[in-house]
Amino acid sequence: MGNFIKNGKTALLAIVALFIVSCVSKVEDPADELLSRARIEYENGKYNNARVLLDSIKIVSPKAYKALREAEKLRREAMIKENERNVVYFEEELQSLIAVRDSMAVGFDFTKDKRYHEKGYYTAPSQAIALNAFNNFLRASVYEDGTMYLTSFYRGKSIKHKTVKLSMGDTYVSCDKPFLERTFKDLGVNNERRDYRYGEDGGLVDFVVATQGTIEVELSGANGKVNYTLRAADADAIRTVFELSQAIKAVKTVEEMLDEARYMLDFLKRSEARSSAVVE
User: Fold this and answer.
1) How many other C-beta atoms can be found within 10 angstroms of the C-beta atom of residue 118?
2) Using an 8 Å Cβ cutoff, are 243 and 200 in contact?
3) Residue 237 CB neighbour total at 10 angstroms
4) Residue 199, SS3?
5) Is residue 239 part of a domain?
6) Domain boundary pick from 67, 102, 137
7) Does one domain contain both 112 and 240?
8) Which phi and psi angles does 274 have, rounded to 5°?
9) Domain identity same for 126 and 16
10) How do residues 79-137 score in pLDDT, each as one tens digit?
11) Alpha carbons 65 and 277: distance in angstroms, whole number
């Protein structure tokens, strides 16, 4: 009877052990499969796909602790590899965009007086002040950081203009909010200059860039209005300066993205070093 009980206990323990092994196997199998697929994606350089698979292990097999530990390690490695690739990509893209910007900038006049200017700016040679001393015109400029603006140059009887209106037929745009106003006398003649920043210009620049044809300009202020036709050379200058501003902004954007990618890569590497030190 004692042997029977003893043998019964042994059999029961064997069954329990088999059940436990079976349960562990069921827990581990889906996790191992996902981990294996993630490794394949990782080896093929598909780091984002690998991370998606690794993250799914937590959902499918939340108690597969061994697989989860391995998954976390591989996930960190995948993130490092992905960010290393991002840094390389942004570095190459930045050099390409700098080359485009610099090749465009060669065709413009650059002005920067360290006594007065924190940032230099580019203008089209055709819009040099010396060549337009007696003209009413719109001059386009772009700072080194890509900020573009239009300057309304008016010479004549005082109108104290604030508003610039551009039109072609029944289509028009206008802006009455200059960010800088200057009025002065030159050889006894009234001169008015008003600066309008792109993005806050009521669509003045975009109108010129998008319009093919003759554009009429109306300046208005407290003392009256003045009308003139925008010269084709000035319209072309505005368009080319706009293109340069976009090239400069593209460089700035990728510089910021590269800085972020480098920061993230450094953070991940330092985190991995700390994790490795703890394991050791």
Assistant:
1) 8
2) no
3) 23
4) coil
5) yes
6) 102
7) yes
8) -65, -40
9) no
10) 999 999 999 999 999 999 999 999 999 999 999 877 767 789 999 999 999 999 899 99
11) 21
pLDDT (mean) for 187-213: 96
- Residue in the structure block whose two tokens are 């703890």: 278
Q: Is this model's pTM higher than 0.90 or not?
A: no
Question: What is each CA distance from 211 to 11, 87, 163, 216, 267, in whole angstroms?
Answer: 90, 39, 20, 11, 48
3-state secondary structure of 27: helix
Residue ranges making up the domain that contains 152: 107-244
Note the pLDDT of residue 5.
44
- Which CATH number do you get for residue 237? 2.60.40
Edge-to-edge strands of the sheet including 216-221?
A: 171-175, 161-168, 216-221, 224-229
- C-alpha to C-alpha distance for 29 and 27, rounded to whole angstroms: 6
Q: Per residue in 37-92, pLDDT tens?
A: 999 999 999 999 999 999 989 888 888 889 899 999 999 999 999 999 999 999 99
Is 151 inside a domain boundary? yes
| Predicted pLDDT of residue 22 | 42
**Residues 131 and 96 both lie in one domain:** no
127 and 94 within one domain:
no
What span, in angstroms and rounded, lies between the C-alpha atoms of 107 and 109?
7
Same-domain check for residues 154 and 223: yes
Q: Are residues 130 and 238 in the same domain?
A: yes
Per-residue confidence (pLDDT) for residue 28, from 0 to 100? 54
**pLDDT for position 279:** 56
Mean pLDDT of 183-192: 93
Number of separate domains in the chain: 2
Nearest to 251 by CA among 123, 84, 103, 141: 103
